[in-house]
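Example 4.3 (complexes with small molecules)
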Amino acid sequence: MLLEEIKSRKSVRSYNEEPIPDEVLNEILEAGRLAPSWVNVQPWKFIVIKDEKTKELLFKASGEQKQILGANVIIACVADMEAWDKKNFGAVLEKSGRNQMVQDFILNSPTLNPSLLGDFERLTRTIEQLTFAVAYMSLQAEKSGVGCCIIGALANEMTKGDENIIKELKERLNLNDRQVLLTVLSLGYEKTPRETKKIRKEPQEVIFFEKL
Ligand SMILES: Cc1cc2nc3c(=O)[nH]c(=O)nc-3n(C[C@H](O)[C@H](O)[C@H](O)COP(=O)(O)O)c2cc1C
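Answer. The structure with flavin mononucleotide bound is encoded below.
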């Protein structure tokens, strides 16, 4: 039952040395790849990172969050604005089997194609999509017994962090100026297993029926 993983999942920031087998890592990546997205545009790229130098750079970019250095594997989640370009978005629509008229309607509709509205709308919609992939991967990690921390506090174009670090990181990861490193997942087996504590708002604070 999925609710079990949702209940037991917690941010894990300390890992032992045990490597994550490739098949386990592949299942986590598959969960991200198969996540749903706006008109199925899939505006994401996932970069698997094991290289210590790249981890060092991510450590710096994250304001020295140690779980990055201790992780067995990092998955860098890239928001890919190029996915909305007519050529790429069109290719996804064509693959879906929609007829040409419907494809054109979607591509030319400001509601369905946020890139027609501007950079802000395209970026916010892209982030919205990445959230699903990140959530799916973190839940698959939990199911596989792999500890995971979602790390969003990173120097990037949105947080306006250190420009030199952003530049160096983008070069290292081979990102262009329309690809933003949004989030990284640090992954590894939990060093000292601890209980999950869910510190959350109460149901009556967040769940309403019919109106707020
Ligand atoms: C989008 C996002 C970004 C996050 N960024 C960080 C981060 O930079 N560093 C960190 O230690 N935890 C980060 N977290 C983890 C949250 O702090 C954590 O999920 C929250 O406190 C609830 O705790 P739990 O995950 O253990 O249930 C992030 C979580 C999300 C969803």
